Amino acid sequence: MLGMITPMIVLNGHPMLGQWGRNTIPLPPGQHHLHVHLPYFLPAKIGPADLTVWLQPGMALELEYRAPMWAHSRGALGSAPQPWNGKGCIIALLAILGGWLVLVLIVIVVSVLSFGQ
C-alpha cells in the first residue's frame, strides 16, 4: 500500500520528490543533511528518517530508506540492509486481534453447546 505514495526527500532543507528504487542525486563534497518521509494525511509524515553524511571528492555513497510497518514509527535510513521499524507494533496488534478472535470463537462454541442441551 505504501508503494503508491511517493517518498519525499529533503536534502539540506530543499524538498524534492523521490521514487521507490534507486534515486541518483549528484552532490558536491562536504556535509549534507538528508531527510526522507512519506507524505500522508494522518499522520502528515509516515516514517521520517534523518541522516547527516560527509562526502569526500569523487566519493559515491549508497543509502537505503525503509518505510516502517507501523505508520507512527520512524523510518530507517543508512547503509543497506535497513531494519523494518514498527514490526513489534504490528506483531502485538495481530496477537491482540488473534486473541480476541479465539475468545469470540470460544464464547460461540460454549453458547451453542449450552443451548443444544
Beginning-to-end CA distance, first to last residue:
49 Å
Strand arrangement, major sheet: 2-1-3-4
Overall pLDDT score: 94
Helix content: 10-25%
Global structural class: alpha+beta
Number of strands: 6
Percentage of β-strand residues: 25-35%
Q: From N to C, what is the helix and strand string?
A: EEEEEEH
Radius of gyration: 22 Å
Shape: elongated
Largest sheet: 4 strands, antiparallel
Q: What count of domains describes the coordinates?
A: 2
Number of helices: 1
Are there runs of 5+ residues with pLDDT below 50, and where? none
Give a verbal description of the structure.
The chain is α+β, with helices and mostly antiparallel strands and 117 residues long. The protein has two domains: 84 residues, no CATH class; 32 residues. Helices cover 25% and strands 30% of the residues. The protein has one helix and six strands. The strands form two sheets. The chain has a four-stranded antiparallel beta sheet, with no helix packed on it. The longest helix has 29 residues. The radius of gyration is 22 Å and the shape is elongated. The termini are far apart.
Summarize this structure as a short list of keywords or feature phrases.
117 residues, alpha+beta, 4-stranded antiparallel beta sheet, two-stranded antiparallel sheet, elongated, transmembrane helix, transmembrane, membrane
Brief summary:
By secondary structure, the protein is an alpha+beta fold. The chain is 25% helix and 30% strand. The chain has two domains: 2-85, no CATH class; 86-117.
Layout of strands and helices, then pairs:
Layout: E1 8-11, E2 14-17, E3 30-39, E4 45-55, E5 64-66, E6 76-78, H1 87-115
Antiparallel strand pairs: 1-2, 1-3, 3-4, 5-6
Transmembrane segments: 90-115
Keywords: Membrane, Transmembrane, Transmembrane helix
